[in-house]
C-alpha cells in the first residue's frame, strides 16, 4: 500500500506582539509590556518579512500574537499609543490590516492569536485561508495558573465557533506540561467530537514541550513540567491515529523531534517550515532544510508534498476566507496541493 504523502507548508512566521495576558510557566515567547524585550512589530518590519517570503516562494503568512495583550496593565502605556498612532485600537484590528498586506504580497494569512471572540473570528475569517488555536489540554494543570485564556472550556468554545463559521482549523496538544495519558485521550476525543459536528479540523499538532535556555528560574516550583520522551511522543501519536478520523492530519514539528521516526508511527504533516524566519515559540530549535527533509523522506518511501495553509480537502470544498479564494485558486493544483511549477516572486498589488 502506498504511503500517504507527508505534507508541509512553506511559510513566514510573523510575531505581531509577544505581550500576552496569560502567564504560562513554560512559555518562552511571552513578555510583560514593561519588559525591555517586549515588542509590537511595525508595519514596515512586517512588509520586509512579507517581501522576503514572497521572494522565497512562501505561500503562508502565519501571524501569531500574545492573547488579549490589551489586558496587560502596562499595554496602554507602551503599545496602546503605538496602535492609536497608526489608527488601531486592538491587536486584532491591526492584524486584520496585516492580513490585507499579506494578500497584497501573495501570501495566504493564517492567524493564531489565542482565544478570540466569535465577533473577532467573524472579522478575520474572510482574510484567512485557515486559522488555529492549540487546545493544549483539557486538564487543569499548575503551569496554567494565572492564565485566563487557558481555560479548556473557552478554548473549545473558540474551536467550535470556528466550526460554525466553516474556518479550516488547526489545533493540537502540548505534551509534557503536567497532563496525563488519560488527558491526552480526553483532549483528542474532545477535538474529534467537534470535528464530527462541524467537519473543520484540518490537522492536530502533537507538540512536545521543549524548554528554552533562561527559563530555569521561571519554571522552578512547577514540578509537573516534564519534557516528554520519544516513547511518550510515539504513544500519543498512536493514540491520535486511533482516536482521530483519517481526514484529520497528524502533525509533529520537525525542529523538535526526529521527523522520520514519527512519520513511521502516524505523523502525516510537518507543519509550516520557513526558509526566512525562525520559530519564535522555540527560537533555539532551527528549522530543518526543506530539501534535506525531502531527501530523507523520499529515500524512505515517502512523498514530501507541499500544501497551502488550507489543506487540500478544504481547497476542493472551497472552505477558505472569501478574500483568499482567488489566491488559493492561483496557488493550488487540481488536487488541492501547491502547484509544482514556480509562480515566481509576486509583486504587491499596491
Notes on the protein architecture:
It contains twelve helices and nine strands. With 350 residues, it is of the alpha/beta class. It has a single domain, classed as TIM Barrel. Strands 1, 2, 3, 4, 5, 6, 7, 8 and 9 form a nine-stranded parallel sheet that branches. Helix 6 (181-198) links the parallel strand 5 (169-175) and strand 6 (201-208). The longest helix is centred in the middle third of the chain and has 18 residues, at 181-198.
Draw up the topology in text.
Layout: E1 6-17, H1 43-55, E2 60-65, H2 75-85, H3 91-104, E3 108-112, H4 118-124, E4 130-132, H5 152-164, E5 169-175, H6 181-198, E6 201-208, H7 216-219, H8 230-243, E7 249-251, H9 259-263, E8 269-273, H10 290-298, E9 304-307, H11 312-317, H12 325-331
Parallel strand pairs: 1-2, 1-8, 1-9, 2-3, 3-4, 4-5, 5-6, 6-7
Rg from alpha-carbon coordinates: 19 Å
Order of helices and strands: EHEHHEHEHEHEHHEHEHEHH
| Alpha-beta content class | alpha/beta
Count every beta strand, where a strand is a DSSP E run of 2 or more residues.
9
What characterizes the major β-sheet? 9 strands, parallel
Q: Mean of residue pLDDT?
A: 91
Number of domains: 1
CATH-defined topology: TIM Barrel
CATH architecture: Alpha-Beta Barrel
Helix content: 25-40%
Low-pLDDT ranges: 216-220
Shape: globular
Q: What's the CATH C level?
A: Alpha Beta
